[in-house]
């Protein structure tokens, strides 16, 4: 079983490349570009090759067996 981190975002959506950095799944934007282009990232169980894909609350991102779910901030 894979542990999943809940990662709150400030706005209604966030781009995949930004979320990978926010969730600490990658170290830099350059890493995000390469990692996504190589097809190593999935969103909601589908391989995603668009770094600019918009993510919303409830979306699940997986990279190399590490998972993070987009959430809304706690009030």
UniProtKB/TrEMBL annotation:
Record keywords: RNA-binding
PROSITE patterns tied to this protein: S4
InterPro entries: S4_RNA-bd_sf
GO molecular function, one term: RNA binding
Classification via SUPFAM superfamilies: Alpha-L RNA-binding motif
Key word RNA-binding present: yes
Coiled-coil positions: none
Domain of life the protein comes from: Bacteria
Protein known as: RNA-binding protein
Species annotation: Mycolicibacterium duvalii
